[in-house]
């Protein structure tokens, strides 16, 4: 057999003839003329070197060699149909893998979105990296991930950003603090108390210090701690005050009071960041689309700041893909 002369189209025509038992019916199903089908079968018989069909009582039936070719053809076409389905799932973001890098504070919220996403798309492998802003900027510069989450995104020409959640920074104190029951507090009244701070490079610390500078204020004694969780526990234990993301606080926090400081909360937003100069995987794009549609189910409505639609439109335009909700351009394997 000269296998180089076999094509998907020849195998498709042959399978259609065997299934229908008729050249004319196969031609109708494939939208071809009957002479074209007959010619294709002659080419296939010549390539195999053995008779494939014989006429019995007005129907085309397989010879012994023809029956074996029919089984092989169905297996080949079936495997490529499965591959076509795989490509459709991959292109639709239903399988594959992606990596997402989060600043520390975002770990208190993103699992609420990643959990439902993983249940909806179990065939997608997700890798999550967590660190402070400086560490995430390094990962961004090295192009180590598909998606990044910052509250203060890098101001780079090759960064695309889309807000998705409010990240208010509030002043917190131990529940029994002397000012906890006040209706309004000036920040100046707190400056002599010790503040617990994250390390330099933390976005929360950077935003807080920038806000203080705008107010013409500076802190007194401070204590640096390694994580938001350590600061939260330290505040509850009476070690000092802090400015933290409201998301760091559990729904019930009997040991901590949010102080009504004038000018607070400091408004910031978490944003998904994508590099313009890196191809975004189908799975990562699918996650962004899932986030756009399901954020309201995963977080309190008052925190929503969903501008992902604009980011997705820009990504679609940059990739030259079809608008969302429409199939991608191009012919599938099933149409070969």
Account of the protein in words:
- With 336 residues, the protein is an alpha/beta fold.
- The strands form four sheets. It has a five-stranded mixed β-sheet.
- The two termini are 22 Å apart.
- Helix 1 packs across helix 2, helix 1 crosses helix 3 and helix 1 crosses helix 4.
- Strand 8, helix 7 and strand 9 form a beta-alpha-beta unit.
Quick overview of this protein structure:
This protein is of the alpha/beta class.
Task: Give descriptors for this structure.
336 residues; alpha/beta; 5-stranded mixed beta sheet; 10 helices; disordered C terminus
Profile the largest sheet: 5 strands, mixed
Distance between the termini: 22 Å
Summed up, the helix count is 10
Strand order of the largest sheet: 4-3-5-12-6
Q: What is the strand and helix layout of this fold?
A:
Blueprint: H1 8-20, H2 23-30, H3 34-48, E1 53-56, E2 59-62, H4 64-91, E3 96-103, H5 110-120, E4 124-131, H6 133-141, E5 147-150, E6 159-166, E7 169-174, E8 195-197, H7 203-214, E9 222-224, H8 228-236, E10 242-245, E11 256-259, E12 269-275, H9 282-298, H10 308-319
Parallel strand pairs: 3-4, 3-5, 8-9
Antiparallel strand pairs: 1-2, 5-12, 6-12, 7-10, 7-11
Helix pairs in contact: 1-2, 1-3, 1-4, 2-3, 5-9
